[in-house]
Structure formats: structure tokens, C-alpha cells
Amino acid sequence: MSMIAAFYGGKSILITGATGFLGKVLIEKLCRTSPDLKVIYILVRPKAGHTLQQRVSQIINTKLFEKVREVCPNLHEKIRAISADLNQNDFAISKEDMQELLSCTNIIFHCAATVRFDDHLRHAVQLNVTATQQLLFMASQMPKLEAFIHISTAFSNCNLKHIDEVIYPCSVEPKKIIDSMEWWDDAIVDEIAPKLMGDWPNTYTYTKALGEMVVQQESGNLNIAIIRPSIVGATWQEPFPGWVDNLNGPNGMIVAAGRGFLRAIRASPLAVADLIPVDTVINLTLAVGWYTAVHRPKSTLIYHCTSGNLNPCNWGKMGCQVLSTFEKIPFEKAFRRPHADFTANTITVHYWNAVSHRAPAMIYDIYLWLTGRKPRMTKLMNRLLRTISMLEYFINRSWEWSTYNTEMLMSELSPEDQRIFNFDVRQLNWLEYIENYVLGVKKYLLKEDMAGIPEAKQHLRRLRNIYYLFNTVFFLIAWRLLIARSQIARNVWFFIVSFCYKFLSYFRASSTLKA
């Protein structure tokens, strides 16, 4: 019998960020392993033309929840949507709903956050810092609350090389920043943001660090734990391999490379790609929720959910496996033959960006314009290159995260719980995982039919032949122009031709003598 699954039975659970990638997988796992839980409250922002129940249906009537609908037929009744907006004071929750949350909630999983690297500092502070502060205030008024689990990021302290399971202070107190945001206008925020962030590369990592400080300072008597996942990727095992539903991080890079848009990346091939499957993160999260509520640690424990220190895989190896998978499982409607160069040379990448990315996009847009369609490829390419540039910080560096608390928790689990709530990344086969990842992007994100693979392979062969033909023609034309203008080039050309002729003559003569 699973102790963790039994623990969540009969519980009322509040999840923020339930409509996001992590939130959906968390709901699925909870309902599948603990179908007798009482209720899951999810905070949902109102959306024009959609009722709260319709928003819930959009989440659970998907491929992800296929197995859950068999185990828990009354799934709709288990999920209670609460109208809320994390950008507003008190989350704009009605008095009746607030009273129900305060009086009934047993466990809080705080997954909500803005994960945009280029988000405006004011908005990032509101969602990642102020909303965390307000949720902690709500939690302090919940008499039945047993645990508060805060999902942060392993990159909240990416300005450090080695990161321990502790909360590191920021130079400015989060309370001062929260207060200042109320009277600073956008011009002041834009001016002061780089000074506040210092060594942090973007507003996301900086505000997640501030959010951790808020948790530490305002935890009071609450049982709190913090989980720091690294780059969250597609599912490894549960509920099935390869599920993904967004273009964030590696997903967008896989789509861009598979469609032939992405040709060069400024990355260190030997840097560790600290990718972690989303189901691994959720298994750890549920185990931490159980441990925090049952064992009630005296201090706030931090759990690193990373792969680099236990089962490392570098970007070069991962990139080769992705390209190898494209050969077996090509994407439909590829713009060019999938190919990617990893280089640390900024000049090389800028050259490729100009020649190999933007030029074909502009040519394709001219074709769209001439055929009466709206040009869109250049805009799409610029957006892609901007996204890649924001990821360069993370694909050119490696970090070391200590995992003592994570390993301690693993040792506390029964063999049954270690099987059901597996977060041991040492068991992860990277080659198999990456292949399932690419397949998942094709099936679940791009919605491509697997029956179209033979046609896609044929299209890929055509693109490869066109690529080789274009390069050959380009080389011959360039060489012909060079010969016409340079005596040295002509001499080199005649030497090569003469050498090849003599070699073939020698080879033919040797073959005749042997016969």
C-alpha cells in the first residue's frame, strides 16, 4: 500500500497554476493515484466567452487525462474551479469562495508563476513575489492546512556556480521592491531593473529568488518546503512517455530544428543540459507534500530536482540524438533539412543568423506576397532568434546543485512509493527519453499524424537532395569565378586535376599488373 497515495485520500488540495504545464500533470497524478481525495481547488482566471466549468473541461478532456477518466469517472466533481486573478489584491476571489478555501484547504501546491524570461519586471514581481506573499497570508488563516509546497526553480541562484539547498539573500529586500512597485512608473522600473538584477540574467530568475526570500520571511508557523526543478521537459513515463503541451524552452528549439528553421546555436556542446522530466518533478512534489505534512521538519527544506549531478547529459550529445530522431521520425512541412551547429563563436552564429535564417525567411515571405498571402516567416524567424538568444545563457553554462534533501527523501520512501512516485533520475535512459520527447512534440504539440511519416521522410529526402545540389552549384559557381580572377586559383585547380589524373593512371596500371 502506498503511504503517499493514502495520505492524499480525503484531502482538500489547493493548486495555483493548474492550467499550466506542471499544474496539469500534478492534477492528473493526484487523481490517478488518489482517486478518493476530497476536492482539488484550482485558481482560474476568468476568460471571456468561457465559464469556469468549461475551463475545467478544456483541461481534463485531453489525452493527458485519458487514464484518469477510467480510474476516476467522477473527475469533474473532484475539481472545483475558483475564479481568481493573481494580478489583483486578494486575487479577486469572492467572499464565499475565500471562506471555503480558508476553512477547508489541507495542502497548497503553489505552481503559478510567469516563466517568460523577457517579462517586464513589474509583472514578474507581481506574479512571482507579491502573489506568493498574498498566498502565504491566506495560508496563515487556514486552520486545517498541513503543508505549503512552493515550486521555485533551480536557476533562482544561477549567478552562482555551486548551489546548496539553502535560500540565498538578494541585495534588496523583497518587501521594499513590492512597495516600490506601487509608486514607481514604468520608466523608473525600466531604468532601475538592471541595477536590481545585477548578476541575474533575466527578470524570471531574479523574481524567483525574491519569491524564495518571501517564503522564508513570511512562513510563520507554516509547514513549508521549496522545490527547485531545472529545465522541465516532456514526461518520462507517466501517464505515457513524451507528453508536452507548450513551446517553452527545449520544446520550441525541437520544433524549430525539426522544421528546419534553426540551423546554428551559440552553445557549449560539453555544457550539461540539466533537463528534468515533468513527471519526475511531480512525483517529487507529491512526496515532499507527504513528508512535510507528516514529519513536520523544524525548518524549511529545499529540494533540488535536477539531473546533472546524478545522470548528466551534455547539449552536444542531446543535439545529436534529436537530429538522429528526426531522420527516423521527421516533422511534416519541414522548411529545410533539419540540421544544427553548436558553436561558441558568436561571429559564426551571427553569420548563420543572417545568411541561413533570415535570408531564406525573407525569400519565402516574398513568395507568399507574390501569391497573395500574408508574409509571416520573417516575423516568426525574428521571434525564434530572440527566444534562442534568451536561452543562450543557460546552454553555455553548467551548474552544480547539491541534492542531499532529495536523496534523504528517497531513502524515507517505501519500495512501493519509490515505484509509484519515482523521482530517481539515475534510472533515466537519455537516448530513449529524447526519442520519446521528439515523438511527443510531433504527436501532442504539433498534432501530426504518425501515418504521415513515410510522406515526411520522402519530403526530407527531397530537401536533402536540394540542399546538396544547391551547395554543389554554389561551390562550382564560386570556384569558377575565383579561377577566372586569380592565377593562383587556376594553378591550384590544374594541380588538383593533374594529381587526380596521375593517381587514376597509377591505380589503373597497378590493377593491370596484378591481373
TrEMBL record:
Subcellular location: Peroxisome membrane
Domain Fatty acyl-CoA reductase C-terminal: 357-448
Transmembrane segment boundaries: 466-483, 492-509
Gene: FAR2
Record's keyword annotation contains Magnesium: no
A GO biological-process term: long-chain fatty-acyl-CoA metabolic process
Name of the molecule in the record: Fatty acyl-CoA reductase
An MF annotation (GO) of this entry: alcohol-forming very long-chain fatty acyl-CoA reductase activity
Topology within the bilayer: Single-pass membrane protein
Cited InterPro entries: FAR (IPR026055), FAR_C (IPR033640), FAR_NAD-bd (IPR013120), NAD(P)-bd_dom_sf (IPR036291)
Family of this protein: Belongs to the fatty acyl-CoA reductase family.
Keyword Transmembrane: yes
Annotated Thioester reductase (TE) domain residues: 15-284
Native organism: Equus asinus
General function of this protein: Catalyzes the reduction of fatty acyl-CoA to fatty alcohols.
Record's keyword terms, sorted: Lipid biosynthesis, Lipid metabolism, Membrane, NADP, Oxidoreductase, Peroxisome, Transmembrane, Transmembrane helix
One GO CC term, this protein: peroxisomal membrane
UniProt-listed Enzyme Commission number(s): 1.2.1.84
